[in-house]
Fold this protein.
Amino acid sequence: MIRSSCVCRKKSLFNEYILYKNETVFKDYEGTIIGICERCKLLKTFPSKKNKKFDPSITKIQDYESRKKEFKRLFEPLVKTVQSYAPKKGSVLDVGCSSGILLALLKSKGFNVFGIEPNKKAYLAAKRKLKKNIYHGTLRSRIVKYHKTYDCIIYNHVLEHIPDINKEFVLIRKMLKKGGTLIVGTPNTDNIIFKIRKKYWESLLPNEHVWHFNTKYLMQYLYENKYEVVFLRFEDDERKQYPLIKKIYFNILSLLNKIFFTGEAVLIIAKKKE
Ligand SMILES: [Zn+2]
């Protein structure tokens, strides 16, 4: 058992859920434990002390920029979602905006865009793209210097990297307008591909992700924090590079995910109440 902080309580006990041991393929994760909270069942990463590669603040800017076209296409549904749930020309804040690809798309649709990014290189790339309203840091480091409320705040595959979720939600509440939209995209462990692949699940990324959420947990958490979930969308990894046989296998698993209304990633749209 590991004693550590959890979203449900300051300190909690975690039981071992996954252990990376004697790894041949995932050598980078050697000794890492994915623990499950005794109280709320949330999964959390515990890197081994020897593991120097664990870095939740990592931003793969090269990935984003070299696959810009692909990301633009992948972000299309998200852009459409923002258009449906945020007011026209409204203010949108992308927390962990990376090199600003999503913000540039939203800007082209007429939104007043803002971004925060802790990685210097990514921040500079976003600033080059968007020219203004891009900040270097995290929500925690910005709030003292920047008082404003937004129509929409986006955490697109960012929340699972943030160690203190409760503190983050206090800030989100301060910075989101009443009735404003909170958009959270994150890997979802409550899906058939994770259940089969466990530690080999591609979206687990234990050197980057502190938390491994599931949809039910997040919906409950949003409800407790006075948000109303208005929309859910599930997605599975395309696994474009995989050989045909593997692709067919994953397509079948994907189909099962669809039948059970789940997926490897979830996009949650919630409205702030009160
Ligand atoms: Zn917990």
